[in-house]
Q: What sequence folds into this?
């Protein structure tokens, strides 16, 4: 199962956080974590544009704590 949510909102970016959960165990077992950063851009100029208050409100229902990644 892939679970995803908005972990962080920037000025013109949205961090989408993921956890892949193995459902074959009784206890919740996360087997992978990832983060994608998506930039909101103007469709013509392809330059970043700031998130509007309406845009922020639209994604707020899917917001939760950010994933903590370990780098080796």
A:
């Amino acid at each position: 199962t892939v679970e995803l949510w908005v972990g962080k909102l920037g000025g013109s970016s949205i961090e989408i956080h993921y956890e892949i959960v193995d459902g074959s165990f009784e206890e919740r077992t996360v087997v992978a974590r990832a983060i994608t950063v998506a930039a909101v851009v103007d469709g013509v100029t392809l330059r970043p544009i700031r998130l509007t208050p309406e845009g922020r409100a639209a994604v707020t229902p899917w917001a939760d704590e950010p994933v903590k990644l370990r780098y080796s």
